[in-house]
Structure prediction request, 373 residues.
Amino acid sequence: MKAYTGDKIRNVAIVGHGGAGTTSVTEALLYRSGAIDRMCKVEDGATTTDFEPEEIKRKVSVNATLAPVEWRDSKINFIDTPGFADFVAEVKGAFRAVDSALIVVSATAGVQVGTEQCWKLAEEAHLPRIILVNKMDRENADFDSILDNLRSKFGKKVLPLELPLGKEEDFEGIIDCVRMKAYRKNGNGSDEIEIPDEYKEYAADMHEKMVEAAVEADDDCMMRYLEGEPVSDEEIRKCLIKGIRQAIIFPMICCSAAKNIGLGRTMNAIIDYTYPAILNDFKVTDVATDKEETRDAGAPMAALVFKTMSDPFVGRLSFIRVFSGTIKADSTVYNASREKDERIASVFTMRGKTQIPMKEITAGDIGVTSKLQ
Prediction:
């Protein structure tokens, strides 16, 4: 994996109610991006992010697991999190390291207890949210009823940017309500086609609602829109990005992890709409003055260990989000919790249990080191 600067990095937690398909979505994203060459099922006990014996036995996620991919000349650090309330601490830890949340909702079950819990935690962490409706290929999957369900729980800010092309077992692609094009699955990719006639009116209606919601994010564009003046597609796109990043619009997209439909467009949405890893300012406590300060990515090195785990061969592994500066291999850092310097021997990233070497962890990136105290 090549090195990326912070403006080309996205950090995203994949969350949802247990059974909604967070691990299946993660596996499909890894496969679609080319990070893995075989897509496994949770039932087989061979998915990339559920590798602990307890996870294989239970067939549920127990730990938050890092799964970086490369897509469109960018790096997306996905963190697959458990969906059951017993392991909510893993979700909270992941939310300290990411800049946005991908909330997975089942197309057959809708909003569940775990969905609402993840939503509340993301809200408390001030994270932008993208809603991904999974299992669109299942029997009784109904996009419209899920939209109504989401809006009844989370408000009118939930905004569909995509519609399903086909229903239940005939689900075969995505209709993009922003660009007003349809994309039909073709192998591991998709073919761009014109929107079929039976969907044109519905897609046009959703496009108009998208424009209305987007311009509300910018006073100037909203005034021009209300006065009947033209607002360009580029301006609408910028308004949409602004609204999503400020968490006043919650985009809703759809997919089928099992049929590998919509995953590439999910990663496109993450890159297009969510924060680059270095755009978010962060707060730290100055150890000398004990006062809280707001810093950006250009400040001296500051990082957070958001998770530790034990490896039978390496020992303690520390997962680190770097907010500013750089952590290099064979360097020394100051541990504020222990109030002493510590040596960093090597740095790497992990995809499930597979270690991938790195020379350094740059501002905005997530990496791993071993044997920190």
Residues 100 and 127 are 5 Å apart (CA to CA). The longest helix spans residues 197-215. The first strand starts at residue 9 and ends at 16.
